[in-house]
Amino acid sequence: MRYTVLMNTFSEIIGQEIVVSHLQNALRTGGVSHAYILNGAKGSGRHMIARSFSAALLCENPRQEGDRIEPCGECLSCIQTAAGSNPDLITLEREKENSIGVGDIRRMRADVQIKPYSAEHKIYIIPDAEKMTPAAQNALLKTLEEPPSYAVILLLADGTGSFLPTIMSRCITLPLRPVPEKAVEDCLKERFGAKEDRARLCARFSGGSIGRAALLLENENFANLREKTILLLQKIEKTNAAQLASFAKETVTEEETRDLIDLILTWNRDLLVCRSTHSTENLIFTDEVQYIIEAAQTTSWQGLQAAAEAVFRARRRLFSNVNAELTLQMMLLEIRAAYRMTDMRAE
């Protein structure tokens, strides 16, 4: 009896065609490098790509699917990889949460000297590789300079600014690009069963990261913040300063503050789109279409533009580490004033 296990495959990777093409070419030709840097933000798919490549590289009977080479999902290696117990696939474990020290790398280097148990390759995955200290990087450099023929090291990084030039020069860097919003939206609908309006909003806020979009989709705090923000914006012209201050105070975490600002910017964007195109086709808040149509007809161009400028100013202040609560209060007051421009209403 044959068993097929569930595991990461290249077919699941969305929006990273250049990276996938490079790794597929390495699998086809056998020209696998001894070290790669998968450079992308959290949620960009670094881990999925590393696992898919590792599974295909270690598979005993890789199969051809169209123009892709995929792991068979049936051999002992695939079963072990899916279970996280493949002795030829090692993920670096570090002692400290915020850094990868020289001791962590030295332990890995000692293991590198041991030949693979059964495969032709032995793969090492280093998550958060940008956290390596200079001493750790110098220790890794000794392996990169004279790697065993079977060793493949995958460094997963969020930015390469902290890497020494000598590390960069001995690795192939594969940058992961933001996934287009439409592709993220389609993925949320197809894989997670998300409704269209929620999928579109989460895709909008994902920054091109399917991982972040999936987290937003499941995040009840984000859903609640969205509803609270919509209710506030629908009545902000009649809301007094004390109520706006209370709303700002309730938004406590850095993540909530940034999400709130993006929600308001997206809301204002929908009003501008509806007013300029007289169409609802490209709106993000599709479940609030009727209100947006009415508000777009009564709010002035100047008011909408002033509101957008207020949001951008708040975002810049937050990046400058200005007090978040005061920044939100000021932004909400400025938006209220912008939406109250009754003497400059549309015809």
Q: Gist?
A:
By secondary structure, this protein is α/β, with parallel strands linked by helices. It contains 15 helices and 7 strands.
Q: How would you characterize this protein structure?
A:
There is one protein chain. With 347 residues, the protein is α/β, with parallel strands linked by helices. 54% of the residues lie in helices and 9% in strands. The protein is built from 15 helices and seven strands. It has helices spanning 17-29, 46-58, 76-83, 102-112, 134-145, 165-169, 181-192, 196-205, 210-218, 220-234, 241-250, 254-277, 289-298, 301-319, 324-339; strands spanning 35-39, 63-65, 68-70, 89-91, 122-126, 151-157, 172-175. A five-stranded parallel sheet has the order 4-5-6-1-7, covered by helices on one side. Helix 2 packs antiparallel against helix 3 (76-83), helix 11 (241-250) packs across helix 15 (324-339) and helix 12 packs across helix 13 (289-298). It starts with 16 loop residues before the first helix and ends in an 8-residue tail after the last helix.
